[in-house]
Amino acid sequence: MPPKVDREKCDGCKAQQEPLCEQVCPGDLMTLGEDKKAYCRMPRDCWDCMSCTKACPVGAIETRIPYQLGYHLAKLIPMMGTNTITWTCIDINGKVERFRYVNRGRLD
Amino acid sequence: MSERNAPRDFSEIPTEIIETDILVVGGGNAGCFAAIEAKSKAPSLRVTMMEKAHISRSGATAAGMDAINTYIRTDKGETPESLVRWSRAQVGGGPIREDLALSNAQILNESVEMLEDWGLPIVKDEDGHYKLRGRFDISIQGEQLKPIMAEKAMEMGAKVYNRVAGTNLLMQDGRCVGAMGFGVRDGRFYVFRAKATIVTTGGACGIYKNYTSDYSGSHHQTWMCPFNVGTGYAMGIRAGAEMTSLEQRWVAVRTKDFSGPVDTLSVGYGCLITNARGEKVLRERYAHLGGDKAPRFVRLNAPMMEWLEGRGPVYVDTTVLDEEEAKDLREDLLNERPTFVLFLASRGIDITKEPVEIYGSDPYIVGGHTGSGFWVDINRMTTLPGLFAAGEAAGGSPNKFVGGCAAEGRLAARGALEYLASASLPEPDLTALSREKERVFAPLMRGPAFDGITPVEMEERLQRLMDEYAGGISQFYRMNEERLDYALKNVKMLQSQTQFLFAKDLHELMNAHEVIDRLDVAELLIHHLKFRKETRWPGWQTRMDYPEPNPELDCFVESRRDPGTGSVEVFTRPYQQLIPGDRTQG
Q: What is the DSSP annotation of B232-290?
């Protein structure tokens, strides 16, 4: 599923040799364009694992459901905490839900 | 990066030669556990990992995981033997390698507990035990599962080469002495010389076409990670390793249009499979095969039969859930398949009011789920001395999943350690190295005027061929001898045309080798499907010309391709029952 990059927010992780999305993508799909902004070189090949979306330090990447499978427009936005993750989900009717839970450490 | 570093001439390609004691090919779940075990048992040994992507988010667990499907709650009376008995029943009585399954089960719990020690949140019940959601399933908050394993492997001192795609084993005097590959980012040719090699490359996705494969963006809406293409199997096949049970394909029942998990809903939350008439399909039509607890292939095939017989669509009935349960369920899904929650939102579905539709997936070759993969001995050594396999790559022992693949990675590391104590490293065969370098980079060197085939074209041709002629989802997984013959003939045509593949950059070069690997797996798979002239696991393996099981085929089907002549030998090995009792009862 195509990750959609916000070209205003993306700074190409300029201090890094490779942007973080390019570093983590399991399909070698994220890369930098000549304008130093990240893009997905082959949207049809994305597995929608959201690794790039989680890794982006400026929140510039959104994972989209392709139109063949879902209607326009729902959003799912992850926020990575130290040992938690918070997800915000907005459905096509505008309903907003949040999910927050521990993703590192023992649950005792 | 891959565009910038793509070499245009063989003389531009640097060769990196790395010497190591243990080479792990593929840094997923089993690979990380193999590396960690090797370093903890023998800290002074050199352990090297070769990974096509980046180990922090590579392979089948890239997106995370919501459960570990095998953990033995001994306080509930479960034992390694009862897990093996259950696993055997889940594949309709087998045959399975009970020796392998039992040895995995014996170190399963400690492998899962290691994950908790490294920081994986595992849900507990009131007594402090891991909370069960099924008989052997425990819930985890596993969004970080992959980074946790990867960080531990690095902390233990494994040397990781990210973005190096494996292409072939390094064979010398009949022994495996490492592997070769190329840098997907740096364009170098890599040679890893190793006293022992462990292949943990996962399974094979993309041998078959998926029904959501449209031009505009959903080609990879697959259950298995689409970047796991069977490279480990293919490297073994090309070197003459014996493969087992490829015909026991894994096909999963999944949510329709988006390959979301169904067990999480039906097993974890009691949402039953229901047809268009509101009938509880498994309970009402498959009670004689175990009802809701029927073997996995029955749970796959049942919804597809409902479609065929005019009682589709089929659903998991989530309307039994209240608001809180529905939220808990989606939290579980966010851990394993986050975009499934986005998918539901993009359909505007409130699962407490509307059931979720289900359907079958495309078929996969995955030895962590069914029995397909390398034939291995109890030490996880393949039939190639010096080459070990674990996880999805190793066959014979199904239903390993996350915990079992971890356990098997550790067992393969122990096997490798025992082997390398007496193994030496011969001088490299330079002719073989330059031959492989030429083969690997050839698709990049064809020149701008070359009139050939792109990797995507060949991949799609293979996937549609297999779908239509070798029992894909468009055919409701059905096949017959003549169709398989057609598939085999055309796979061989495609293999003969790989010389026309061309790549414009290193990413496409990786894609070119992925399709070459898929072709080699497909070829042997068809031989296996042809040999099993019976129907033993309907859905996974449905022969329309032989619709019943044949007692004479209650054995393993094996294959080996001769690396010299290319001819394929198919033969059987006997099943050995170690755990007594009715094989179909878990």
A: HHHHHHHTT--EE-TTS-B--EEETTS--BSHHHHTTS---EE-TT--BHHHHH-GGGT
User: So what's the ipTM on this one?
Assistant: 0.97
B108-117 and B98-106 are packed helices; what angle lies between their axes, rounded to 10 degrees? 40
pLDDT at site B216 = 74
Residue B53 to residue A26, Cβ atoms within 8 A: yes
Pair A45, B226: CB distance under 8 Å: yes
pLDDT tens figures, B459-470: 999 999 999 999
**pLDDT value at residue A2:** 80
A87: annotated active-site residue: no
Strand boundaries in B370-414, DSSP class E: 373-374, 387-389
Q: B331: nearest CA in chain A?
A: A99
Asked if residue B4 has pLDDT above 80, the reply is no
A18 CB neighbours in chain B (<8 A) are: 1, 185
- CB-CB neighbors (< 8 A) of A28 in chain B: 2, 52-53, 163, 184, 227, 507, 510
Q: Does A82 touch chain B (CB under 8 A)?
A: no
Please write the tens of the pLDDT for every residue from A43-83.
Answer: 999 999 999 999 999 999 999 999 999 999 999 999 999 99
CA B522 to chain centre: 14
Contact A100, A84 (CB under 8 A): yes
Give the count of Cβ contacts less than 8 A between chain A and B: 178
Mutation site, A99, A100, A108, interface B, largest B CB count within 10 A: A99
| pLDDT given at position B502 | 97
With contact defined as beta carbons under 8 Å apart, do B347 and B339 qualify? no
State mean pLDDT over B112-118. Answer: 98
Backbone angles phi, psi at B214, to 5 degrees: -110, 165
